[in-house]
Amino acid sequence: MPKAKMDKVLVRNFLIFVVILVACSGSLMYSMITGDKQLDKTDDLVMESHDIIATSEQLSTLIEGMLAAQRGFLLTGEEEFLEDYELKKGDVSNHLATLNELTDNDPSQQSRLAEIRSYFTDFSKELELRAQTFAPQVDKTFLEDVEIVDSLKNNITRINSDILEEQYQILDERFDSLENTKTQYLNTLLISISIGTALLLIFNSFLLRAQRSRNVVAASLKDTEERFMLAVEGTEDGIFDWDIKNDQIFYSRRFFEMLGYDQKAGNGTIEDAKDLIHPDDVDQVMAYVEQYLNAELSEYRQEFRMKHSSGRWVWVQSRAKGLFDENGNATRLVGAHTDITHMVKTQEKLAAEKEQAESANRAKSEFLAHMSHEIRTPLTAISGIAEILDKRKDNMDDKQQQLIGTLLSSTSSLKDLINDVLDFSKIESGELELEVTDFEPGKLFEEVISMMAVKANEKGISFVFEYEALKNKSFHGDPVRMRQIIVNLISNAIKFTDDGGVKISTEIEERDGKDFLRINVSDTGIGISPENFDLVFEKFKQGDSSVSRKYGGTGLGLPISRNLAKLMGGDIFLSSEAGKGSTFSLIIPYKTTETVIEQDKGKTSKKLDDKIKASLNGESKALLVEDYQGNIVVISYILEDIGITFDVANTGVEALELWQNNHYDVVLMDIQMPEMDGFTATKEIRSLEKRKKLDHTPIIGMTAHALVGDKDKCIEAGMDAYLPKPIVEADLKKEILNQIQRQKKAA
Known about the structure:
Elements: H1 3-76, H2 79-102, H3 107-130, H4 140-210, H5 214-234, E1 238-243, E2 248-251, H6 253-257, E3 266-268, H7 270-276, H8 279-293, E4 300-307, E5 313-324, E6 330-339, H9 341-391, H10 398-429, E7 437-439, H11 441-459, E8 462-466, E9 475-477, H12 479-495, E10 501-511, E11 514-523, H13 545-551, H14 557-567, E12 571-576, E13 582-589, H15 605-615, E14 621-625, H16 629-641, E15 645-649, H17 652-661, E16 666-670, H18 678-692, E17 699-703, H19 710-717, E18 721-724, H20 729-746
Parallel strand pairs: 8-10, 14-15, 14-16, 16-17, 17-18
Antiparallel strand pairs: 1-2, 1-6, 2-3, 4-5, 5-6, 7-9, 10-11, 11-13, 12-13
Helix pairs in contact: 1-2, 1-4, 2-3, 3-4, 9-10, 9-16, 10-14, 11-12, 12-14, 15-20, 17-18
């Protein structure tokens, strides 16, 4: 028979068989499903009758139990009989509800249940009336009650018996129906088996005919295998198929080409692959394979190195899927290798770039620390000398006083600039921490007013600061950082206002049930366009380039202030219109304590000096450890001003030698010095004190680094206090007084 004709016959026979198979299978399935449903339905009805009978039989018992429990209570007066009565009463109610649900489709049974419920209600009432007293009563009334109760019980029992009688009849009918349904179902199965046998005979005949087309199918399979091999060879992945039982692996041609070997696809062993894996990786690779084949891993995916024919190592990613028998034993592992060398090199490059970035960041921090030291060290001398000259300006002419004022103003601006840069560095690195304490906001505002009112007067604009709401109130927070924010906002307002003035208002407002401190800084200056609102809070940026050229500034004040506000749990908000002024609002949580803050009546520098002199015994002596001559001059003047004699050491080695040969009430210790730094010198002093059981000498650290962690390093080294440079005269005097008084109390 020609191939084309044979194909037609094959298709025709196949279609006929499919039609017959679908028709018969459909009929069979329909009959089986219908019969199964009918059996289930009939069986459910039988079970329903069983449930009704069982529930009804229990109902009579529970009624008797209620009566017995009530009689027990009347005879004994014990509460447990009442509890048993209530329990059985609840069970009767539940059984009635169950019966009502089970007989929902039976009107006659529903009618009987309604009668039972009515009798049960009367029965319960009568029993509960009798239970109002447990004293035995044998009078006529009592006997009448007994008759009523028994009558009600008998009615319930009678109706319940009717329900049982009818349900037993229904049960018999349903049993008969179930038997008939089973018989029909068995007959259907016999017919279905007969049809199935016939179908098998037809199918066998079809197989005999289909055998004649075997060669065609074999040829088609061969073509398919060839296409599969072409697909395997054409892919970029190296394919492997490991027959674990026979310990043979099929390797595709690409598997070897990826490693630079000119080798055809073929079979090999696991040892062939192990010979190509890097010696440092082979144990790890095989251990991973073993874990996967033992079902300890949910998926197989690992990366390792394999040897290239050129001698270099190629990174590959191995992915595979395992086949397991019914006992869970691995029989086959099929997967692919992908060359990921370029990805690994990219990752290594990224890691190197990350390390470079981190190194650059460390270098930046070191640079800031070094520049801080190099700038702050001479700045201490400059600002100190300026303050000394300012104290004596009464003996100078106007020109000299103007020069001194300019020097002080320039020094203050330079300190602010340095502090802004350092604060910004701390904020970026997330290392800036608040120093929280209790303080009086009103006093802080007075300090700000005394400083900022002068700047406003110099520009000829008005300056109003309203803080009545916060007078004589305490606040728990960081006063230094709050002052920094307020000064930044007011400085900006004054800078950008040429006409009109600046007004600051304060209030305590409620938000979401919590108190917040709100400080509004409003001006009548140049204002800001809405599109530039976000820009003014970005680092090193201002509203536009013309503003930057005209007014100057680093563009760090507002970004730093907003970050500080957020660190305090609040924020800074802006409301402005170009040409009509701006309002910056600082809003932070209002935290207060019961701490009573001592009122400061305006202590002057002279009063501080007098207090220090009063605390000295006339023989107090200090050791000044400093290597920069300008700072020695300034600090020497401060010490002489309060009547403290002192020695000077230029290095840590000199300081250690002087300390061992003399007694000092306080040591002013610079941190960065030649030969031996301040940290090491302090540790040596503390070690000698401990070893020789000497009295504790207060040591105040002085550093020009002023970066994050410097204070902690000073305390860890054994210092008692820390002052950043440039040294503020008042701060130094207060710290000296504090340490001397503490030393006296300890003595």
